[in-house]
Specification:
The chain has helices spanning about 5-45, 50-55, 60-79. By secondary structure, the protein is mainly α. The chain is elongated.
């Protein structure tokens, strides 16, 4: 690879890294909001019926819903 090509590759790597960092913050904001909505829905659903509601109404797995809710709760404890 010549110097121009390797320099262009380095520039592209740096650009992609910057975009990953920029969008990671947005992803966390969306994860937190999803967790807030899940927690609000869970509070309105009778005990023991949340998993069934998830399966019928959203496209994420129960485990992913748990992750979002845990993240939101942890975030709220830290801030």
């Amino acid at each position: 690879m010549n110097n121009l090509a390797i320099n262009a590759t380095a520039s592209e790597i740096n650009r992609e890294h910057a975009m990953a960092i920029a969008h990671a913050g947005q992803a966390l904001d969306h994860a937190k909001r999803a967790g807030e909505l899940l927690l609000a829905a869970k509070a309105q659903i009778p005990h023991g019926q949340f998993s069934e509601w998830l399966l019928s109404n959203v496209t994420i797995s129960t485990r992913q819903a748990q992750r979002y809710m845990a993240y939101t709760l942890a975030y709220s404890l830290e801030h």
